[in-house]
């Protein structure tokens, strides 16, 4: 039976930790190549632009001995040239897995429902699970463990924030989210995340007070204020979020051994100042690299 990675909801905390362990093992290997996907073809069905997701999946599939086929937004034109259902059924006749980047999460769900091969969410408007896996890998790598750590997410309660909420809750990490009023993460996702912490006592805080969130945090994380597809809201958002910038003054409140994280692409001078993102506590390019290792572990787990 095929299994998708549409959201981290579909995986237990234990399974997430296993993926992270496999990713760490793959990263340590001096020879990155293997035959896990020999003879297999993976499609990358993208409705939005990408640097990290596209390149890390293409290189990951190549290193696992498989073949990658990139399908640009113009090529498939999901739901316009052809229904999502027909696209999923057709691609399942050729491919052994689909990595999708969709505008709407409903399209991601429809792809999962109608494809007979694993569907991996490479970002939708609601979630970015591959990013959260790479982030947890980066945090574990840096601190040696995920225990007794707090991540503070500051900015927009967006797709990256939603996946971090679920990921942290599942593996037992504390997470504090600070957003302007009206930009909090989805209430249903917060409730879901809270339900996962019953077994591990992780703490979730949702606030509008960024100083409260960042105080003593081990990880300070932000993302763009204007996500892909929200370009028309840009003038309003830039005003609404202006007090939610990560700068040196805010970082001074974090734990002594703190790290700064950002999924990238970043806008220096907006959500983060250059001195922070380019400073010694920033691990943003380790995160970017770890997309490759985490996704290779996902591909082996789901598509082998
Ligand atoms: N972080 C991330 O998903 O980057 P891309 O949009 O460049 O793929
Ligand atoms: N929240 C951002 C993440 C980009 C990787 C977006 O959706 O555009």
In words, what does this structure look like?
- It contains 13 helices and nine strands.
- With 304 residues, it is of the alpha/beta class.
- The strands form two sheets. Strands 7-6-5-8-9 form a five-stranded parallel sheet. Strands 2-1-3-4 form a four-stranded parallel sheet, sandwiched between helices.
- It folds into two domains: 8-128 and 291-303, Aspartate/ornithine carbamoyltransferase (Rossmann fold, 3-Layer(aba) Sandwich); 131-287, 3-Layer(aba) Sandwich (Rossmann fold).
- The two termini are 12 Å apart.
- It binds phosphoric acid mono(formamide)ester and norvaline.
- Phosphoric acid mono(formamide)ester binds next to α2.
- Norvaline binds at residues 123, 158-160, 223-224, 227-228, 263.
Question: Brief overview, please?
Answer:
The chain is of the alpha/beta class and 304 residues long. The protein has helices at residues 13-28, 52-63, 73-76, 84-92, 105-114, 129-143, 159-171, 187-196, 210-214, 234-240, 248-251, 274-277, 284-303; strands at residues 41-46, 67-71, 97-101, 119-121, 150-154, 174-178, 204-207, 219-222, 259-262. The structure holds phosphoric acid mono(formamide)ester and norvaline.
């Amino acid at each position: 039976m095929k299994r998708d990675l549409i959201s981290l909801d579909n995986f237990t905390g234990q399974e997430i930790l296993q993926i992270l362990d496999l990713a760490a093992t793959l990263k340590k290997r001096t020879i990155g190549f293997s035959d896990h996907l020999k003879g297999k073809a993976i499609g990358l069905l993208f409705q939005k632009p990408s640097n990290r997701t596209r390149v890390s999946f293409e290189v990951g599939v190549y290193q696992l001995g498989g073949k990658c086929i990139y399908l640009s937004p113009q090529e498939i034109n999901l739901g316009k040239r052809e229904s999502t259902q027909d696209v999923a059924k057709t691609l399942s006749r050729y491919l052994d897995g689909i990595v999708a980047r969709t505008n709407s999460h409903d399209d991601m769900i429809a792809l999962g429902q109608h494809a007979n091969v694993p569907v991996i969410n490479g970002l939708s408007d609601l979630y970015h699970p591959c990013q959260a896996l790479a982030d947890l890998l980066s945090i574990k790598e840096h601190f040696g463990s995920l225990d007794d750590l707090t991540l503070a997410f500051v900015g927009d309660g967006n797709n990256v924030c939603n996946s971090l909420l679920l990921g942290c809750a599942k593996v037992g990490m504390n997470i504090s989210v600070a957003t302007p009023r009206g930009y909090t993460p989805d209430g249903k996702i917060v409730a879901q995340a809270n339900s996962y912490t019953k077994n591990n006592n992780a703490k979730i805080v949702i606030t509008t007070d960024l100083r409260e969130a960042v105080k003593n945090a081990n990880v300070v994380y932000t993302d763009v204020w204007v996500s892909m597809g929200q370009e028309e809201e840009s003038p309003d958002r830039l005003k609404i979020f202006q007090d939610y910038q990560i700068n040196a003054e805010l970082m001074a409140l974090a734990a002594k051994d703190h790290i700064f994280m950002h999924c990238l692409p970043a806008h220096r001078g907006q959500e983060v100042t250059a001195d922070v993102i380019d400073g010694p506590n920033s691990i943003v390019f380790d995160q970017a690299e770890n997309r490759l290792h985490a996704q290779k572990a996902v591909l082996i787990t789901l598509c082998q």
